[in-house]
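Technical appendix A lists one of the benchmark inputs used to test multi-chain prediction within the project. The record comprises two sequence entries:
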Amino acid sequence: MTLDATLEQIDHGLDASLDRLLSFLRIPSISTDPAYAGETRKAAEWLRDQLRDLGAEAELRETPGHPMVTGRTGGPGRSILFYGHYDVQPVDPLELWDSAPFEPVVEAGADGRVIRARGASDDKGQLMTFVEACRAWKAVHGNLPGNITFLFEGEEESGSPSLIPFLEAHKDELTCDLALICDTALYRDGQPGIVTQLRGLLGEEIIIRAADRDLHSGSFGGIAANPIHVLTRILAGLRDETGRVTLPGFYDGVPQLDPVLAAQWDGLGFDAEGFLGAVGLAQPAGEQAYTPLEQIWSRPTAEINGIRGGYAGAGFKTVLPAEAAAKISFRLVGQQDPHRLREIFRDWVRAQVPPDCSVEFHEHGASPASQMRIDDPAFEQARQALGAEWPEEAVFIGAGGSIPIAGYFQSILGMDTILAGFARHNDQIHSPNEKYDVESFHRGIRSWARILDAISGA
Amino acid sequence: MTLDATLEQIDHGLDASLDRLLSFLRIPSISTDPAYAGETRKAAEWLRDQLRDLGAEAELRETPGHPMVTGRTGGPGRSILFYGHYDVQPVDPLELWDSAPFEPVVEAGADGRVIRARGASDDKGQLMTFVEACRAWKAVHGNLPGNITFLFEGEEESGSPSLIPFLEAHKDELTCDLALICDTALYRDGQPGIVTQLRGLLGEEIIIRAADRDLHSGSFGGIAANPIHVLTRILAGLRDETGRVTLPGFYDGVPQLDPVLAAQWDGLGFDAEGFLGAVGLAQPAGEQAYTPLEQIWSRPTAEINGIRGGYAGAGFKTVLPAEAAAKISFRLVGQQDPHRLREIFRDWVRAQVPPDCSVEFHEHGASPASQMRIDDPAFEQARQALGAEWPEEAVFIGAGGSIPIAGYFQSILGMDTILAGFARHNDQIHSPNEKYDVESFHRGIRSWARILDAISGA
């Protein structure tokens, strides 16, 4: 019956929970932009204070970049690590936002109220579902269930450079029986999913340089190497006409989909048309030989995420630029080795750089794909707990995104992660007008109370 | 002997001439950026006042964009139109400037003093050589030679949208026996050239759009069309491996080089290695079947001048952008028709836009190549006058750059232009740290006094 009391506490406290989330969203913790370093730290301090409210021993832990926030409650029962990230993506193009990204508002959406702000969904709104569930639990029980450790990172949106060293340096402190992460989406409206496989990520930046200065295309056009041409020629060759990545050996370690899993995924009735239609698209543009779900969950990709070179502002400038640059990410699956692929990619680029040009590389993260061992009973307990909260029963699914930490928890701390999240596919994370449904927030808090009740052994 | 008196006057007045140029350079007249519209107008007013000092009836003439400045002196003798432009290129990347672009300084350069500022060479410093020659002439003679009309434009660096309508509306006022323009470079150090053929220019901007918002490359990578991929694939196909432009019909109207001209150009002893070496390059990157001089003077080109898409700032953002864009210019020769090529280019792009993507085009100027009829004796008179001023005799040359107005003077006003300029190839026009040699400025002023003396019939 104490679960019911906790759920009731959550319902009564929803407005206060929302107020706390809005305070958190007002802090522009853009980790990738050094101009926001101070604000990013403020977000960490804000979270630390939340954990102290829960009775946890909480503190900021310095790293070469943004600090980690940790908290421990101690106590009997199963040991659980909850992870979230308090940093957010940049907001450009700012002109496409309908309201200021760091002045959150709760407003009417197409189907219910939404919280609109950068980070509303990814990951501030989502991580606060767990923190608020704990707050309600404590209000009812006087303390938290099980033995909970909190770990909040401030560099998830900028490649997590401090994460591996931190995990390795604090293995004993951070290793628990199980990890929980709230940074994924509902499988579909009304139906939660637990992600049991995630794609890995390899991030690379290449800068092509030619002349030692920008040149006038009248004086030098036709005779001087143009780095934008060189860059476009290289990038254009990254995928063939069928969507297949052309790097030699790229598909080594990519498994064919297990028939049992394939049958499960078929049973999900994935609506590719609706998924693409929601963002103005109509046709799967990936490898034509694979189903839409495979294209986003179990097939690797190469995507250009950014490109720049020369003058791209208003008007026109007849310049041959000294350099051009692009950022490229690869989503990885199965046993693809990000470090080996980085070298393959760089060799492949170098082989195409013509005379008079040079190339420089910068790395932006490398994490393998990961797969959970769902024979731990907690996975089925969590699935049932979610089903009790939402209109439809929860399903085990794949995810196209990379949550490298789930892989590191396996490889460094030897623990699996239950990835349950309440975002919707129309949350526009990483885009202008990001939002989080109030229903996601509310049911999300209730979901964690149910999961804690089911798995913590309290 | 009055020529000698004028030259002496120029020598004595050099410091005052420099001071006036520095005042002009302090006005940030960046025509392509609407934020500088007010400053651009100030530059026009400043020039108008200079012309009034010369006794010309001078005024600002409104256009839909930046104003024209015109001035007339009347008087007997040959009628001459002098054209220059008072607008300048943008200054980015600002961090590569060693001094502020609009705080001009006169400083020691590698070989003599230089004036350093945006526009020091292109075209403020150059056009002021003519204005200062007139000022000295007037000081000695009391009035200007011949019958001079001045025309200064403020949109040359942004596609000259108002130019053709203005020329057409004021044909009678502007048509003279001959035009003079000072916006070109010395053929080489110590040796001036008169440009008798210029490449034309076609400017195009293409914007590729896919989803109706930026997407997360985790959720959508592999299934959603990526406009940067589409753009790079299209642009990569613009030239083949030999440097040849692949647009169908692109080479229609491109003449083979006349054997007489080819022999003349061979006689120039063009130092391609030195030309490229000065900017950190070593190998001609254009059509391999043509000489370096042909690559820059008589062969057409396709160059990408700018590209943008996704997140290209510090750090990394795993975004699939909603759009990607590029600016492309074609240098044209012979009878290539820019309007026809614009349509060919657009059709060629449209045919490559895949499902779920759209393309938008913006035009940025279209001017054909031009060729002067040098049987007018003024050309040879000017060549000899230049030879008297500089260490080496002047030569008739080609130019890779586009000075569309020289073509319009032919097609609309029926007059040829003597293009004589004193820039050096290391002036870094359109680049950070633009400069103009004090020697170019000084000898440039003296050169115009000599040319006016030779051709004005004074």
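Chain B touches chain A through 102 residues (CB under 8 Å). The mean pLDDT of chain B is 94. Comparable benchmark entries are summarised in Table A2.
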